[in-house]
Specification:
alpha/beta, Rossmann fold, two-stranded antiparallel ribbon, 8 strands, globular, binds flavin mononucleotide
Amino acid sequence: MTLTLDGHRVLIGIGGSVAAFKACQVVTDLRREGAEVKVAMTEAATRFVTPTLLRALSGNRVVSSIWDDDPAEVGHGMSHLNLASWCEVQVVVAASADLIARLALGLAGDPVTATAMACRAPLLVAPAMESAMWEHPATQGHVATLTARGGRIIGPVFGRLASGHESTGRMAEPDAIVAVVRELLVAGA
Ligand SMILES: Cc1cc2nc3c(=O)[nH]c(=O)nc-3n(C[C@H](O)[C@H](O)[C@H](O)COP(=O)(O)O)c2cc1C
């Protein structure tokens, strides 16, 4: 049986949002479709889900610090550059307001943003935050910057948020994120 994403290389970057746990489902679903998945996480993301879990789900070493050095890796030892040149599409899930701002500003102080800065592959961002943070002009400005640069934003959607309120800010569901990944890979094929 040929899987839809057979052999495609997808990088998942995870931010420090409550929705980080949904990144696990995104990784699982992508692998189920045959994709090869590697994961980069911010330090804040590791407070919500562990690199150990993402390592187990992705089947690959997880980069959670730009100072991580993989003893098995030959070459220059700069993991963010290896991830950037490896992936066909980069997906930032559980993208916090802070992470979106850093991506828009071109900061590169963590594994997710450093890889994004070094990467020429299409960028898909799935924001997740309280509605006030999402609607804040700063966030909206950063999202507009990313979109103008060719980045694709999925969600957030209306629904129950971590605070218990119902509003817009909930991360798009994993199956919707995987559908856009599929689209980006097919479009780029
Ligand atoms: C329990 C908890 C939940 C949080 N959830 C979110 C969230 O859903 N979205 C968000 O933008 N920030 C959230 N934050 C704040 C971020 O974790 C904080 O801004 C962090 O610096 C973001 O890290 P990152 O930029 O590496 O993703 C939360 C903080 C805590 C303590």
